[in-house]
Amino acid sequence: MITRSRVFGTGMAVPDHIITNEYLSTIVDTSDEWIRTRTGMKERRQVRPDQAASDLAIPASQQALEEAGLSPQDLDMIIVATISPDTLFPSTACIIQDKIGARQIPAFDISAGCTGAIYAHTLADQLIRTGHSKYILIIGVELLTKITNWSDRSTCVLFGDGAGASVVGPSENGSSGLLGHHIASDGKGASMLYIPAGGSRMPASRETVDKNLHVLFMKGNEIYKTAISTMSESCHILLKQEGLTPQDVDLFVFHQANLRILEAVGKRLRVSPDRVFVNIHKYGNTSTATTMMAVHEAVQEGKIQRGSLVLQVAFGAGLTWGGLLWRW
Ligand code: UT7
């Protein structure tokens, strides 16, 4: 009987092109000072016009597989969390399945906004624990610069492109792996963060293009407050489930949406800032990719080691939120 899933390898990919705060201040009425002090962001990455989500997802996946010591043929499933897929259908996961040379395994996308990676790992954990699948490739990828309104200063300074990947499989011992998960949603907040057109409610038309309705709209202030309360809630629920306290956690990996949100959640939990991982200054908000890229970098930097207690928590469109408590 398998009791837990664990991460065997992680990977990430970001485009080379950097968008600086200084550049943004040449296209909208903003400044490096405003962006840095209000968000903690200094730069973010942008793909080329001809690139799609799978173009970042594939190198991130190959790195995760390599680190896991596995080949694409070993995979039993591919789950991609994204709200900026290559196409509305087929899924980006199917495109990746073909391009990396995996077998004819199940492959599908999930849409849970910035919480997508948390949802995907929760789902994968169930499938691994029941014995349905052995190795699952999970990718969180977002090309937010493709759905950004470049004339809206309240959103265009925030978002970037990136992909994070992990290969999960059965833990060989009962002590390491995913200790607990918590996922939740509240659709009453659906209009706080969304793209109005392009779906069946408002299909693409000349009018939707003229009105610029294929880009992301966000009520930043309302989201800000809810992000702090829901991410704190997920931490408390997960720690309580395991009889642990915030002081037991070696590293908190929060969704990188705003440095002030990370600091506020850390403060609520009464943990020192050095235990809250931050890479928002380099990549901005890459939605579902942020916590996966952060976990990958934290592993590379030695901030997550075998045995570390890690709390990975996110919040986003839906509204959705949730967390994963790992014994690495
Ligand atoms: O990942 C999905 C979840 N997303 C989030 O979690 C985002 C959460 N929200 C936030 O991070 C923040 O609310 C923002 C960064 C979006 C905005 O920061 P804020 O401190 O909440 O600013 P605000 O919206 O209250 O705006 C304050 C002022 C306004 O001007 P007035 O009305 O006071 O004159 C804005 O027009 O800042 C102005 N402003 C800007 N000024 C310069 C808004 N954006 C900018 C900008 N540059 N880029």
Layout of helices and strands, plus pairs?
Blueprint: E1 5-13, E2 18-20, H1 21-27, H2 32-39, E3 43-45, H3 53-68, E4 77-81, H4 92-100, E5 107-110, H5 116-129, E6 136-143, H6 153-156, E7 161-170, E8 177-185, E9 193-194, H7 206-210, E10 217-218, H8 220-241, E11 251-254, H9 259-269, H10 280-283, H11 289-300, E12 309-316, E13 320-327
Parallel strand pairs: 4-5, 4-6, 11-12
Antiparallel strand pairs: 1-7, 2-3, 6-7, 8-13, 9-10, 12-13
Residues 30, 34, 38-39, 114, 153-154, 157, 193, 220-221, 223-224, 227, 257-258, 261, 285, 287, 316 line the site of oxa(dethia)-CoA.
Describe the protein's architecture and organization.
The model has no long low-confidence stretch (mean pLDDT about 95). The chain is of the alpha/beta class and about 325 residues long. A hairpin with a 3-residue loop joins strand 12 (about 310-315) and strand 13 (about 320-325). The longest helix has 22 residues, at about 220-240. Helix 3 (about 55-70) crosses helix 4 and helix 8 packs parallel to helix 9 (about 260-270). It has helices at about 20-25, 30-40, 55-70, 90-100, 115-130, 155, 205-210, 220-240, 260-270, 280-285, 290-300; strands spanning about 5-15, 20, 45, 75-80, 105-110, 135-145, 160-170, 175-185, 195, 215-220, 250-255, 310-315, 320-325. The protein has a 5-stranded mixed beta sheet with strand order 1-7-6-4-5, with helices on both faces. A 4-stranded mixed beta sheet has the order 8-13-12-11, with helices on both faces. Strands 2-3 form a two-stranded antiparallel sheet. It binds oxa(dethia)-CoA. The site of oxa(dethia)-CoA has 20 residues, from helix 2, helix 6 and helix 8.
